[in-house]
Design brief:
2 copies of one chain form a homodimer.
Chain A: H1 11-35, H2 38-45, H3 49-55, H4 59-72, H5 87-104, H6 106-117, H7 125-147, H8 156-172, H9 174-180, H10 188-207
The structure holds a DNA duplex.
Chain lengths: 212, 212
DNA sequence: CAAAAACCTGACCAAAGCGTCAGTTTTTTC
DNA sequence: GAAAAAACTGACGCTTTGGTCAGGTTTTTG
């Protein structure tokens, strides 16, 4: 109707791909890869099915794009684990960052969980290696803190996993959390309580020398 | 060919239903409800499709049966949380029990995770209420320990959830765990390490009065 | 051992699924 | 402002899917 006047270059493509990916990640996160129908993605994104296929070759292509996008964010939160900081602050901030992320990106968090539940078969060797390297690097920082006597001697990898597990829990298993807390939905307050609890447990657990 | 001589009552039914459920829980745990095809269940169980339908009305019926079975085990592990015990022992045993369960019942654990990721839509109001009551009851035990000065003042619900999250992590997200630990698969030793780590964190974190 | 009950199954649907395509409309380019 | 490029789409084809069914076989029962 109205002719778009100025700069628009590849804007249409960008906008529509975004629409599709947004609809797709939501569906994939709830129904998994096999359980998600392209027709659903098409409907949820408001684009006709044939148009979805105009932008993405196959369902796999959509999924792979999402995986790629997700992994790009994997390292970001780990930036908090910085050797020049005090472990208490660094860990506190890291837990906060992880918690905030999974809360504000509920859908992405669940999408990731879904893919992992399925065995991470969409992760390329390269992507796995990447996750591994980042983690290894940060584990070294933790080890540094331990050697400096600032942290109890704890396995950094398991420490990380405990943090990941407990922070993601509230996003991925919100149903369990809601039932447990006798609520119909989790509030900001609940997330705050969860955060306090995790920080208390983890910091108390590893800041002072463990008595084994 | 050979006539079965003695007692067999409803054994055929029991055996075949078991076959179907076993195949189904495995598939559901990996592909979710929508992603699992009855033909797959039929193939995996070794029974022709029409025979599967002889034992179960619909796909939903199979799924619901599994949910039911799973929930029956929800409370069992919580038995360890017994007011007459010392919190340290009780928590240690509970963590161990949870960990062992999810490890030995990989598939069930993932099935449960899958259902929760999907929002727990297959859980009836009654089943949710049940989970809630059991948890509430055990939370009261924790509160008792806190009042008795045996435990730091921590929210029991969040304590439970942290335990659930961290113990299930290794089963549900074995892929992440394997990548993190640079292994192709988790060994018994890895689980042991994980257990030690969780116990250390949680017990250190809540046994002594928290310094907040 | 015969009738009844339980169990089994190949073949068959209608609906839904993924992906295609030929042709139209809109936007961009020069 | 016309040709080229990009975006769009209804309708279609072929496969898979959940579920049915009519009739068969095996087991149990009395």
């Amino acid at each position: 109707m109205v002719a778009p006047k100025k700069n628009s270059e590849a804007r249409i493509r960008a906008r529509n791909e975004a629409k599709i990916l947004k609809a797709a990640v939501d569906l994939f996160s709830r129904k998994g890869f096999d359980g998600t129908r392209i027709a659903e993605i098409s409907q949820a994104s408001g684009l006709p099915k044939a148009n979805v296929y105009y932008y993405f070759e196959t369902k796999e292509a959509i999924y792979a794009t999402l995986i790629e996008r997700l992994l790009a964010g994997w390292d970001r939160a780990l930036d908090h684990i910085d050797p020049s900081r005090e472990p208490e602050d660094a860990l506190r901030d890291y837990i906060r960052a992880k918690m905030d992320y999974s809360r504000q990106n509920l859908v992405d968090s669940r999408f990731f969980a879904n893919e992992m539940l399925r065995g991470g078969r969409f992760l390329s060797r390269k992507q796995k290696k990447h996750m591994q390297n980042i983690t290894k690097e940060k584990a070294a920082v933790i080890d540094g803190w331990i050697k400096a006597g600032k942290l109890a001697p704890i396995d950094p990898n398991h420490l990380f996993m405990t943090i990941w597990a407990s922070t993601q829990f509230y996003a991925d298993f919100a149903t369990v959390a809601a039932v447990t807390l006798c609520k119909s939905r989790l509030t900001a307050r609940d997330y705050e309580d969860a955060y306090d609890n995790i920080v208390t447990l983890i910091l108390n657990g590893c800041l002072k020398p463990a008595s084994k």
